[in-house]
Amino acid sequence: MSSLESTPGTARPGRADARRNREKLIAVARAAFATADDTVALEAIAREAGVGIGTLYRHFPTREALVEAVYAAELDDLAAGAATLLDEYPPEIAIRAWMERYASFVATKRGMVDTLRAGWASGRIATPTTRERLTAAIGTILASGARAGSLRSDVEPEDVIAMLLGVFLSTTALDAPQRTGRLLNLIADALRPGPEPSDRRGG
């Protein structure tokens, strides 16, 4: 085998380094967008990731490309998080933990919302199926909880997403995490089964 060939399942060193740099840039950008009060400088992201600005531009030629990659990574994690949380927790705990992850997703989005909106409007950034994927994710948890009897069976996933969006739209970074957490607790409590009618009458 040529020394230039890689063995099956082994990435070439150059490609592995490039992949690590890309992942590091996305991780740093995710944190920066979540905490930024203003536009995040790409030079600062490259510096924090320990790479040169040229390396950043090789992976992400434009700000829109970086924002799109960060948004996609956040959305993938959030959508997959439902099944992961159900593997670790009972549904009534998993759904509250998932809401917390959703809140973090929205916090990251706030730091790049202007770029996202402009990119979606111009077509430079593909419009993701965000609402559908998140509705499916929370629907998975609701269905599991309904089977276990720990979550209501008469709740539509779309309604839960609408309530969560209401919380996120009505709060700001200055409110978080205390006020946001209280509101999420109220939603989580509303999703738990109430007493049967006979119990409410005391009969």
Walk me through the structure.
With 203 residues, the protein is mainly α. The chain folds into two domains: 12-61, Arc Repressor Mutant, subunit A (Orthogonal Bundle), CATH 1.10.10; 63-194, Tetracycline Repressor, domain 2. The chain has helices spanning 13-35, 42-49, 53-59, 63-88, 91-110, 113-122, 130-148, 157-170, 178-190, 197-201. The protein is elongated.
Defining traits:
single chain; 203 residues; mainly alpha; Arc Repressor Mutant, subunit A; Tetracycline Repressor, domain 2; 2 domains; 0% strand; elongated; disordered N terminus; disordered C terminus
Mean of all residue-level pLDDT scores? 85
Shape: elongated
Structural class: mainly alpha
SS strand fraction: under 5%
H/I helix tally:
10
Q: What order do the SSEs take from the amino end to the carboxyl end, as H and E?
A: HHHHHHHHHH
CATH architecture term of the largest domain: Orthogonal Bundle
Reported for the largest beta sheet, the result is:
none
Short description:
The chain has 203 residues and is an all-alpha fold. It has helices at 13-35, 42-49, 53-59, 63-88, 91-110, 113-122, 130-148, 157-170, 178-190, 197-201.
